[in-house]
Design goal:
heterotrimer; A alpha/beta (230); B mainly alpha (540); C alpha/beta (340); A: 230 residues; alpha/beta; Rossmann fold; 2 domains; 6-stranded mixed beta sheet; 4-stranded antiparallel beta sheet; 8 helices; B: 540 residues; mainly alpha; MetI-like fold; 23 helices; MetI-like_sf (chain B); MetI-like (chain B); transport (chain B); membrane (chain B); Thiamine transport system permease protein (chain B)
Chain lengths: 230, 540, 340
Amino acid sequence: MIRIDHLFIALDDWQMTVSLTVKAGSFCALIGPSGAGKSTILNAIAGFLPHGSGQIFIDGQDMAPLAPADRPVSMLFQDHNLFNHMTVAQNVALGINPTLKLNKQQWQKVHDALDQVELSGMAERLPRALSGGQRQRASLARAILRERPVLLLDEPFAALGPALRKDMLKLVSTLAEKNGQTIIMVTHHPEDARLAADQTALVQDGAIAQVGPSETFFANPTEALKAYMG
Amino acid sequence: MIRQANHKAFANGIPALFAFLAPLTLVVASIGALWSMAAPTLGETSSVGSALSSLFSDVYVMRAVRFTLMQAALSAILSALLAIPLARALATRNFPGKAAILSLFGAPFILPVIVAILGLLAIWGKNGPMHTLATGIGISGFSIYGLPGILLAHVFFNLPLATRILLQGWLAIPAEQWRLAAQLGMSSKAIARHIEWPMLKERLPGVLAIIFLLCATSFTVVLALGGGPKATTIELAIYQAIRYDFDLERAALLACLQIILCAGLAVISRLITQDHDTGESLGGAIHRSDRTSRASRWVDWSVIILALAFLAMPLMAAFLRGVNGLIMNPFDAAALLPAALRSIAVAMGACLVMGLISLPLAQLSIHLKGKTRRLVELPGFAIMVAPPIALGAGLFILLHQHIPIDRLALPLTSLLNGLQAVPFALILLTPAMGQIKRDYGKQIQQLGMNSKTAIRLVHWPLMRKPIGLSLGITAALSIGDLGVIALFGSPTAPTLPLYLYQQMGAYHMDQAYGSGLILTLVAFAFFLIFDKGLAGRDKN
Amino acid sequence: MKALTLSLLAASLGLTTSLVAVPSANAADKPTLTVYTYDSFNTEWGPGPAIKEGFEKTCGCTVEYVSPGDATETFNRLRLEGGSSKADVLVGLDSNLVADAQKSGLFEPNSVAIEGLHLPIEWDASTFVPFDWGYFAFVYDSNKLSSVPSSFEELINAPDDLKIVIEDPRSSTPGLGLLLWVKDVYGEKAADAWKQLSPHILTVTKGWSEAYGMFLEGQADMVLSYTTSPAYHIAAENKTNYKAAAFKDGHYMQVELAAVTKSSQNKDLANAFLSYLIGPEAQTVIPTTNWMYPVAMPEGEWPASFKDLAKPDKALLFDTEEVPAIRKKALDEWLGALSQ
């Protein structure tokens, strides 16, 4: 379970206060206008942002003292998930050992992970020889190998076409379900939330304006959600 | 607060602090030593205030200050202004050998000053083709001595540098913007205003600052082409103070004046300007629809051809004299080879120093916010503008009782050459390091790479190109620089540039031209070894 | 990381040092005579190597040259080091700096037996021993310049297109020589003379090399150098077209001096070196390496290339005691006259 308790973040002249609970093994979508603070919440959970008062707990453990690498979290970004100068296999292998010193068994795991995301033949290619969807699938393969209970998705599929995006969401959901991962995803597409998320939250002006199970969330929109959905 | 992971690759506090303070300490300590030596030699202690007031009331010093600032500012503006059409033409037009020509652009920079001056005079001086041309079209009394000569030489030295930086700017404009411009049917004027000017506004201040510094301290050129004491520099006033009056206090003050005026102006100009990335590739050309007419093509090609002629003719003159010197005189391998090896050793030392200072500084700069990051450029600027004669004398006073300084002439030259190259290296390294942090900083943290791993897997593969180019520039600069070796002196073990000056001093002008050619070739070879060798091929 | 930085730095220093350090083979049993001299004295073309070799044959010692720049810079190095200098001998002090050298108290009277010096002037060699000398002069190419001025007056009145290139007195020894030459000839009217000369001055360079290089490239008709400069072109290149213009005003002299330092630990050796320097062996070497007149050799024995050189009728040299004051005044006049 992820519990964010009165988390206060101030960046230059902008600030936000957030409380949010996401059940273990569930899928939570964050929607809302640009600049509302959706990505900021993910960056705080992943440990990329120093924050003020408030706390983040994952499975009861306080995140504050943990460095990003030590948190039970994997995060996927829109860009730059892969190092462009390394092969796909190397990029994925970083999930097992960031020094890239892997034994045979571990390399086998890399290839298994690539199989899972249907990139078996692409192991030795450089990322720039891959399509956008393939690149994000490779990133996903790495996230699988890292075996972290929490997966944070910062619009990783935003640049993909609708059909491909749907496929990717399905893939992520399936994998997460299989591995018992909790997911928080930032998206610009409410239909993504409807499709994949158990829980949806609307982030607006540095606060959570509405939150609830996805079905009821969209069925009973508040004024804020109405305004956002147009 | 979240405890930040120790992901800082090249430096955490200590190396960065060392890199920032070491060059500044060197300058301050040298000048301080000069100052401390002054009191006993003068036999009286005069206050700083009275010394300063005597300085500022000295009409020649004030004239030197004014002239130094004026000629440096004019040189910088002229070089930058001429670089604009040249960079634009080079960005728009592609031709075979463009890459090679851009590499050769570095040559005026490497050439020993005296060889470059004589090369320039062979074209623009009395009996030169430009002089003949001027007389031919009825301009009598054409003479390059005076301010025109100084500006001519400074543009010759710095136009290539300015052009390279601006060319990168043009090539860094996203292709979408050109397509958008084409779609909207923007005229050249509109493109200049909406696309090119914003880019230039970011890059020109940096270009102006570095050329200003180079010209403010270019003492031999100003003197040789200036035509007389009208064209005088602060450095000459320092010579006067040290050589005849042995007035070290005045020398120290003058050195401070030069450093504060020049480095201060440069840093201020950097603080009020925008950030930009450099170090992008210089390959390819942009496609713009507004410059497809016959007239615009004609303009671009004329600009390129004129600029190449301007840069190549003096180089060719020096080259031919060098070949002639090598043919006319037996090749003295017994003297030239050791000299070349010494120069190479000095250059390698300089490269090491440059790396040890620049990398932590570049790393430091990306941890600083906004414009304060420009402050990391200060140590390099300070060394660049510190008058060598004052620095040399100060270092000598500081060190001679502790180490055999005559034996250390070469290492000290390495040290100072390496530090002088830092500003150039930072132009290349800082943006590259910044980009790595922007693109991959979070990945490195998330994956839990330690510094060593991050350097091996990320920084090194991504930075070998700018590092290679920085090392190449450092090596070339160092091989061509007479530096402080002439001040500490070791004539029986000269470097190539010192050997060249020795030959000139012994009437052996032809041989000196030959040595100049060899020097240029060696410097160029090392530039290429680092630039091409280290950069490596992209695996694909 | 800091330790690594420092050790890398130390390693690189060590590496470069090992390339410079001259192993002194038997330093243990032989004393070392440290000679401070200007750089061109000690290049492969200068008299340094031959003199070192010759002296070492007899002295049972090792001669070590230290050259921190030109003559003035070398003297200033000694001044910076003060009493702690390891220099035994200074070779190449310019006569114009004798007053400063006396005042510095760094030198002591020598015990050299001085006789038969051939100098056009009187010289007290009790502390500063002359070893060669020359006249400053304007050198020209006789293939190019037909009407050669034979005095400053004629130079001033020559057509404006007769151009000379000179050295800056603040950074160069010949430059200072010219400054004193004009002051000696014109006295109180020196400033006016410079003003009148200024249309002829193409440019003023930092040092002799730049000026002479520009002259050889044909940039100027005349260059300030020495009457002995043409001897190089005669001896080494077989060219007789370079000549020094003889001025009726007389020519300012440069006398190059050597002296024993007060701090020397090898005073006997130091004095022996001075004796050797004005002895027949060294004096034979000096003219065709330093391109200056020997100080202890009758004119009849001069090398062939020296015999046809222009010989000034009158030698000019300020009293060494007066030079510092004159220099200061003359420099101000020069700056004032040429800065307008």
